[in-house]
Amino acid sequence: MDKIIHQCILVEDGNPARYRLQTSSDNLNQSEPFRKMTFGERDTNKPHKTILMVGETGTGKTALINTMINYMLGVQREDKVWFEITDDQSDQSQAHSQTSSITVYGFYPQESKTDLTIIDTPGYGDTRGVDLDKQIAESFLSLSESAEGIHELHTVCLVMMASQTRLSDRQIYIFDAVQSLFGKDIAENIVLLFTYSDGARPKNVLTAVKEAKVKVAVNYKNQPVYFLFNNCQSDAGDDDDDEEEDEDHEQRMDQSWDLSFRGMAGLFKFLDNIKPKSLEMTRDSLQEWKQLKTKITNLQTRVQMMEQREKELKQTQEALDQNKEHITENKSFEYEVEVSYKEKVDIKFPLAYKATCCSVCEENCHYPGCWWARDPSCCEVMKDYHCTVCTKKCHYSKHVKEAKIYITKTRKEKRTFEDLKKKYEDKIGGGVSLVQKLEEDLQELEQEKIMLVIEAFHCVETLQMIALNTDSLFTLQHIDFLIEKLKEINEPEKAEILEDIKKVVEKENQRVL
To answer: Does 506 score more than 60 pLDDT?
Structure first.
C-alpha cells in the first residue's frame, strides 16, 4: 500500500484515510467532447476490460468507480485506507463541464492482473437538463471514432439505488438513450448495479426494471444479472469516546466492505466470461438510426403533401366536370380548391430548439433532436456533403440550422378557368386535352406517392433490424400510417410485414425479463 500512497494526495485523514490517485490528464481542452484521466502505464500483455457506467445523478456511481479501484488494488478493511480516482467535474469551468460530458479513466496499476478503462457519464440526469444528457451520445460517438478511443466494450453498467420501487421517467429516458447507442447484440453485456443495498434481494427495484422493459443480460434462470453494493466504505468513524457507537460503526463498515467487495468480485467474474462487443456496429447503427428516423418523418410529411395535391387536382377535375357548358362555349368560370402551402415558424418544443432545414426543398431534414451540430455541414443527416433526407438530396450549403421549422397548412383559393388554361397552355397539345393532362398529373403524383411509401417501408424495416432499442413510441407513431398507405397502393405483403413488426413492438412493451 505504501507504494500506492506515495502516488496519491491525502484528501482526508481518518479511518479510513482517503487518498486521491495522481493521474495524468488528456483532452482537457474545452472544445473536446470527452476527457481522459490515466493512472499508471498500459501493459499490452495484460488482460484489458472496458466498461461504461451509466446512472442518474445521486445513485452512487462515483462511489462504485472508486470501489472498483480499491478492489483491483487489493485494499482490505484493515488497511484503513481508501483510494479515489474520480474528481468533481463541478470544479471545472462551466464551459468545460457543459461540453466534456464523458470522462474516461484509464486504470493501469502494476498491482493488478487486469487493466481497466472506465467510461463515466456524469451528465446523465444532471440538473442542467436533457440537452446535456443528449450530449453524452455524441461524446461517446466521438470517443469511439477517435484515433486512440474506445473500439470495444465489455459491459454497460446501469446503476440504480436498491431501495427504488419504480424507475423515474428520467431514468427510463437515460436507459433508453444508452440502449439506442448500440446494436442488438449489446443486450447480453448490460448488467445492473444496485447501490445503497442492505444485502437483501432487491425485489422492488427488479420489478421496476422489468416493468420499464430495460434490456439486460440474463442468467441461466433467465433472470437479470445484477450485483449489490453498499456505498459506505469510505465513511470515517466519529472521534468520540462512545465505545458502543464506535463498535456499531465498525460493524457497519465491515458489512459494507464485505457486501461491496462480493458484488465487485461477481462483476469482475462476469467481465472475465463475457466477450467484448465491437463499437463498429454502434457507430454505423447510431448514424443510420438517426438518418432513418428523420427520413421516415420526412417521407410521411411528403406523402401527406402529395395527397393534398391530389385532392386539389380532383377538386379541379370536379369543377371542370360541373362546368362543361362553359368550357364548350369557351367562357371563363370561377371555382374553389383547397391548396397546401408551407410556412416557416418558430420552434416551440423545448427539447429540440434547432432544426436543419433545406431552403430549396423547404423541408425539415433533421427535427426534432438536431441539437449538437454547430452548422448544417456537421448535421447527422449529411453524408458526403449532401443531405440524406430532403427530396433533392441537396448540398449542405443549401441548408440552414436555426430555431425554425417548416409546417404544412391548407387554405381555400378562388381560381378561374382562364388561370387554369394559362397554367397548362405549354403542356397541352397534340390532341391532349386539359382533362387528360390533369389525369396524367394525378397518375404521376400517385406513382411518386407509391415510391415514397415503399421507401418509408424499407426505412422502418432497416430501423427495426439495426437498433437494440426499437424506440417503440416512434415506431408505433408512424407504422399505422404506413400500413394504411401500403394497403391503399395494393402492397398487402409489405403491410403484413409492418403489422408483424407492430406486434413485436407491442409485445416488447409487455415483455417480462
So the answer is: yes
